[in-house]
Amino acid sequence: MTVPFDLGDTVTLAADCHAPGGQLANAATVALTITAPDGTTTTPTVTNPPTVAGRYRYDVVPILPGRHLARWVFTSPADAYADAFDVDPADVPMLLSLMDGKRQLNITSIDHDEEIRDYLTSVTDVIEALCGPVVVRPITEVHHEQCARVLVLRQPPVLALRSVTPVLTYGIAPTVSELDVDSDTGTLRRKDGRWLTGGPWRVGYTAGRPVVPGGIRLAARVILDHLWRTQNGADGLPALAHDDYAVTQPIAGLGFAVPNRALELVDRYRRTPEVG
To answer: What percent of the chain clears pLDDT 70, i.e. is strictly above it?
Structure first.
């Protein structure tokens, strides 16, 4: 399983050059082009000949998160190879720590640490799709109304309103001190009861749960265990209906990734579906 690299990791890019008969061979020239997520490219100098005949390696330290592309082109013999790798942002959200995840999976070795961390990121995505932000983070979103009695922020619970600015040069916006926000629902309104006018607006706020409820933490562990079983289980058979990890309800956008037990644990925290 290929897992993302951390921002700041050293990524070893590898490509083998083959002669027409398939055997490894040193090339007369080698060109490596690395395309970053923002579309910029670099063409570093690759050692040629390599330490091992036909096996080319280059170490790079990415400075941007996202999908990177690497393309190797060899001449004499003519050969080419393309690959990709992902780099996580420095602040990738994880509801459970690596230690929590390994304890839940009863794993003590370090052999699967990177894979488990990737699972923990996915588990956080699943939980937050159900319950809204859990890991505290800044959020910025655009609301396209020109006037409104209230705005409903899309990712409650809201911890703090940071800014409201007009998107258009002629727009107007109230100051943060003139507004009240309901933390649980994300409903934003003027304190004086007047309508909000002068939109659309760009709203910045902080969302998440500084203290994570026990039900959400346990549900995250159940989902982690379920996903790990699906990928690494010994028998590969689906859970029985009475099993804690049984899945009988497909969830919109998540399919059968969430066991019934986990749904029950987060039921009181689940976000209200958006209407319209």
So the answer is: 88
pTM of the model: 0.77
Query: Which residue has tokens 């619970």?
Result: 157
**Residues 97, 103, 113, CA angle at the centre, nearest 5°?**
60
Query: Using only C-alpha atoms, what is the Rg of the chain?
Result: 25
Q: How far apart are CA 201 and CA 249, in angstroms?
A: 38
**Measured between alpha carbons, how far is 17 from 78 in angstroms, rounded to an integer?**
8
Distance CA(134)–CA(222), nearest Å, equals: 17
Q: Which residues contact 168 (CB under 8 A, 6 or more apart)?
A: 200
CB 195, CB 145: distance < 8 Å: no
Domain assignments of the chain as residue spans, ordered by start: 5-88, 98-133+213-269, 137-207
For the domain made up of 5-88, give the CATH fold: Immunoglobulin-like (2.60.40)
Of 218, 236, 229, 268, residue with least CA distance to 100: 218
